[in-house]
# Entry
Amino acid sequence: MSTVRLLSPSQNLVDTVMQVLQNGSATPDGLASSVVVFPGKRPAHVLRKRMAQNAGTAIIPPAVHSIDLFIDHLCREHLHLRGSAVDEYDAVAILFELHTRMRREEKIGGEHFTTLETFYPVGVKIFSELEELTIAGIAAERLTEMVRSVTLASAHA
# Structure
């Protein structure tokens, strides 16, 4: 059975989802047969962590997707569409290439991130934020405007 809920901004998203899952987990497969779709990626991490803490043991969590990954999953698994989406590794490699071409004073961390290995954690965060901004519908022009207004001193603080 599907449960769709519209939540007020004052309601806690993760707590509400946990309550719905706990009320419906009396199936033989338990939580593993459930699918949760969040508007972004961050709530999924919080949900899994809180579920494991509440259980006090390892659990098989429900399938948890952000809306963009859920749509990708549906396209691949049910519609058998194979898109040319850029995966995280390729995106970070592209970001690193751009980073290496920047002037020293423009680079994040100055000369600290000189190899792909040292740049990778930062690149993942940048890529994740760019995905979230894309999902939120922020136009490239607006993003460029916003980025230009950030000074490196404030970016490193």
